[in-house]
Design goal:
Layout (H helix, E strand, L loop, with lengths): L2 H14 L3 H21 L3 H5 L16 H15 L4
Helix pairs in contact: 1-2
């Protein structure tokens, strides 16, 4: 390992009041656990994949509140006659 990394490990282990070996084991355990988590869960972007960028519409669709208000009003109008 590079000297700089060994110094950082020693400093962090001292701060946490644990041995260097224990600190390294803990880091490895967290990294391996985090790796397993990310493989199981997919992000919204992963799920949408091919659809991203295929919609043509206003540039500010995701940030302009007016579009949300219009969509909710339209949904309410179309639901009134379904009873």
């Amino acid at each position: 390992m590079p000297e700089a990394m060994l110094r950082e490990i020693a400093e962090e282990a001292k701060t946490r009041r644990v041995g260097k070996s224990e600190f390294i084991r803990d880091c490895l355990k967290r990294a391996l656990h985090r790796g397993k988590k990310t493989k199981k869960t997919a992000s919204c972007l992963d799920l949408m994949g091919q659809s991203v960028g295929s919609f043509q519409g206003p540039r500010d669709l995701s940030t302009n509140r007016r579009y949300l208000v219009e969509a909710v009003a339209h949904a309410n109008r179309s639901r009134k006659g379904t009873r």
